[in-house]
Amino acid sequence: MNHPVPPSRISCDLLVVGSGAGGLSTAITAKKHGLDVVVIEKEDVFGGTTAFSGGVLWIPGNPHAKKAGIQDSREAAVEYMKNETGAFYDAVAAEAFLDAGPEMVEFFERETAVKFVPTLYPDYHPTVPGGVDIGRSILAAPFDIRALGEHMGRLRPPLETITFIGMMFNSSNADLKHFFNATKSLKSFTYVARRLATHVKELALYRRGINVTSGNALAARLAKSCLDLGIPIYTRTGAKELALHDGRIVGALADGPDGNTVHITARRGVVLACGGFSHDVARIRKAYPHLQRGGEHLSPVPAGNTGDGARMAEQVGGVVEIRYPNASAWMPVSRVPLGKGRFGVFPHLLDRYKPGIIGVTRKGKRFCNESESYHDVGAAMIEACKDEKETAMWLVCDQATLSKYGLGYVKPAPMPVGKFLRNGYLIKGDTLAELARNAGIDAEGLEKTVAAYNQGAAGGHDLQFGRGTTAFNRYLADPENKPNPCVAPVGKGPYYAIKVVMGDLGTFDGIRTSVVGEVLDDTGAPIPGLFSVGNDRASVMGGNYPGAGITLGPIMTFGYITGRHIAGALETVQIPAIQIERKEMVRVA
Questions:
Q1: Is the pTM of this model over 0.90?
Q2: Residue 12: CB partners within 8 Å, gap ≥ 6?
Q3: What is the distance between the terminal CA atoms of the chain, rounded to a whole angstrom?
Q4: Which residues form the FAD-dependent oxidoreductase 2 FAD-binding domain (predicted)?
Q5: Is the pLDDT of residue 572 over 60?
Q6: pLDDT at position 181, please?
Q7: Would you list the domain boundaries of the chain?
Q8: 40, 377, 417, 575: which is deepest, by most CB within 10 A?
Q9: CA gyration radius for the chain?
């Protein structure tokens, strides 16, 4: 693996700290507008949380939707954001995002290696006024990472628990339909066999899959664009302290890969893009209610997201706020034993939507529509367990459902399940009562819950929570299951369960900034020369999750806005009630 070693002294116009979508989109935009940019990353690999993600961007009015003739309007998007963010609706930031989002997509597709394709994703709450059933979410196009050349090995691999022998799958991947049908369709079997053969060949030649999709593709495309522009990405180089001169941020000190200190002078300033604070134990203990009462939290985001940006901003007078009722993008997860003392974190992105799978608390009771978004189910888990020390649910299904769809990290038939029963990840019982005893669930509660659920499920109805009644519920379900793709009875035993706890996909609360990314002090004044993007910056969505890609869409859009502003290309933001004045930057030799 080729790790460029930074010199002990670096002089540039702009220093970007972090290599996810926020940092790299800012770096590329600033470079395209004439600035000399350097990116540093403390981990061995670049790509940040982006490389683990689904690679989806929520961009209302995007050019791909317009090209497809999908009817939408800016007014509808504003209405939807107002309804979704409630008391935290920020008109200036929201309208800046809606104005600049489509322009950002056009800029990156025209000027860089970043390319997108449309998706069929509905908004997560399509029945809310302003919501739509299709068009606002786009996806990074697949990418052959051999184009990264000698830097290919520095791309963060996809999350291990959502791959099969290193091959990527998630809710945006068309491969999934074929893999679920491989034992039932000759066409799907042939497709899967060809796909596996290609992947095995890639592993033999390159020790990893080279045709990447989703967030791995987006991270690779952004990195390729940086490298094409001559922007160095120094990995194993972690910022430890910001440099001040006459009250202005003018660079940073970093720990280099050889243990040396790297002195970086940045004439236009520093951009904090460190990925948020998902693994800052002290901060999340204050921010997450389930941790405050003693529960467990397992985040699948990179271990390096330890709140470095928040810490450095606070050290120079910046404000990190915990305002939102939901401080992070919640993700129900399970702990997967991987052997030799290792464990992984599995995000439950797909199984909850499948018919015949229900989620219950320790009392054996359902508490929500399992086919809502991961964030909504996570918020419901936190609320349902508010009087308990542990925040957890158990996903429950019968043998036929397990064989057809799998459950969590357990794959569908014909893949074996024995090792998961032996290591305790998968829990089994010949009867519901036995399953409950083995899982630590109230047996009477579980039996009553399944009986009540099955009354409606036999006819395709969820009498308690209305599962399957929205386009989003149905999007990740099983269209072949009639009449409701999300609902089927829990049938004959044996029965299975997996314990699910709380995790997150990244933080929503964060550094207080202006709309163009200036870090603000406790008086609301910008700290000269200091900016923040990505999950370090407080989310424009106000702690809610309106649709697929509402993290990466704003992240790349505000990275684009911030990069243009720093470069001086942005005179004003074209929305009412805000003017952005250009300021002369203090230039430091």
A1: yes
A2: 36, 37, 38, 264, 265, 266, 267
A3: 34
A4: 13-552
A5: no
A6: 65
A7: 9-36+44-168+209-273+508-567, 169-208, 330-504
A8: 40
A9: 24
